[in-house]
């Protein structure tokens, strides 16, 4: 894999321009950005990452999908990526611009805080297609994509609710934004489906990945009486904290049972590879459109599409719990039922979703309240 430096490479841009002129490449009026490629050219695809590619979490899941993309589509060169790019508008804009200048015709920006810089850079490069993960703004050459992780969160809540003996589950949470709030709520609904007496206590870290802070938060939750630790964080340190204390956990992003085998019962995981392949194909063929199809998102796939799933269970998970999860999963996949189906109350006991009603995609994507059973503030 080729890891890019954070320095601009104007010479490469010049070489690419000469090569384009020599081969007669040009934009076709009927084709979308990046569709105008010759058979002998590689379609360059770039990636911007919030963390390192070996974080065993969010970034690693995207990077494994990048490798999958190149394996599935031989005409794609997705070797350009930049790790550890902060959600600082100036720095993110510079890196995204760099990738565009280096000839990448499709650029995936894979963290929420890259949304505004992505939109800004896209205006300067109308012949480049940009895909932003977890945001909500689109443009003619910018799509917004995400996965219905709340579905896998709900399933993992079933596992956690069956496992807790103290009826207090700790949740180490990154940022108080709808994505994270939605996941906490779905997890709690799963917990309370099987254990109405259990509660989920949330601690905000205000960081996506900081192993030390995450571990401290998990230890504080364990000290307060929690005997299961769940997380919306990129490192496995909350699971490792649970293991050190002889407790159990629910990981996130990838199979964290590999890092904390005695604690981690399962992990809601991402599988971005098929989405990346389908999207790059559509862009190349000129059929891709940025038009939102689910709320404000161009793409929002879930269990049915395989975008989200559960990692293999640890040996401590009973067979009857696995069977229950399988039943609930099939119910979701069938479309007969989804997680945010009423009746659902908020923390104050107010009915937020009436019996028989289901939250719309827009309502889920803008969620800013906690369900009953969550301890903590959604702010």
Automatic annotation (TrEMBL):
GO terms for cellular component: plasma membrane. Keywords: Lipoprotein, Signal. It comes from the Bacteria. Gene3D superfamilies: 3.40.50.2300. The keyword Cell cycle does not apply. Residues 43-336 form the ABC transporter substrate-binding protein PnrA-like domain. Residues 1-24 form the signal peptide. It holds the Pfam family Bmp. The keyword Lipoprotein applies. PROSITE patterns: PROKAR_LIPOPROTEIN. This is Putative ABC-type transport system, periplasmic component/surface lipoprotein. It comes from Desulfoscipio gibsoniae DSM 7213.
């Amino acid at each position: 894999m080729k890891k890019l430096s954070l320095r601009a490479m104007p010479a490469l841009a010049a070489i690419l321009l000469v090569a384009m002129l020599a081969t007669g490449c040009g934009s076709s009026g009927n084709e979308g950005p990046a569709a105008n490629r010759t058979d002998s050219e590689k379609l360059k695809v770039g990636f911007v990452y919030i963390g390192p590619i070996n974080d065993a979490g969010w970034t690693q899941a995207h990077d494994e999908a990048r490798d999958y993309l190149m394996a599935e589509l031989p005409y794609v060169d997705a070797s350009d990526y930049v790790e550890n790019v902060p959600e600082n508008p100036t720095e993110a804009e510079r890196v995204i611009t760099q990738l565009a200048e280096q000839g990448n015709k499709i650029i995936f920006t894979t963290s929420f805080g890259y949304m505004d810089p992505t939109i800004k850079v896209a205006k300067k490069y109308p012949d480049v297609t940009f895909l932003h993960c977890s945001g909500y703004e689109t443009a003619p050459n910018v799509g917004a994509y995400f996965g219905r992780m709340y579905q896998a969160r709900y399933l993992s809540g079933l596992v956690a609710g069956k496992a807790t003996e103290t009826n207090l589950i700790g949740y180490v949470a990154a940022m108080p934004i709808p994505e994270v709030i939605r996941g906490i709520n779905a997890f709690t609904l799963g917990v309370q489906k099987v254990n109405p007496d259990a509660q989920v206590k949330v601690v905000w870290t205000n960081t996506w990945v900081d192993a030390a802070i995450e571990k401290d938060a998990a230890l504080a939750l364990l000290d307060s009486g929690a005997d299961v630790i769940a997380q919306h964080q990129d490192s496995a340190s909350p699971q490792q904290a649970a293991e050190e204390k002889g407790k159990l956990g629910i990981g996130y992003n990838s199979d964290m049972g590999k890092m904390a085998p005695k604690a981690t019962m399962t992990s809601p995981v991402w599988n971005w590879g098929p989405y990346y392949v389908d999207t790059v194909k559509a862009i190349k063929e000129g059929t891709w459109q940025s038009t939102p199809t689910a709320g404000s998102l161009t793409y929002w796939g879930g269990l049915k599409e395989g975008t989200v799933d559960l990692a293999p269970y640890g040996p401590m998970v009973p067979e009857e719990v696995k069977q229950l999860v399988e039943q609930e999963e099939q119910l979701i996949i069938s479309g007969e039922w989804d997680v945010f189906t009423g009746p659902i109350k908020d923390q104050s006991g107010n009915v937020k979703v009436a019996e028989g009603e289901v939250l719309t995609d827009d309502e889920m994507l803008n969620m800013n309240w906690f369900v009953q059973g969550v301890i903590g503030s959604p702010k």
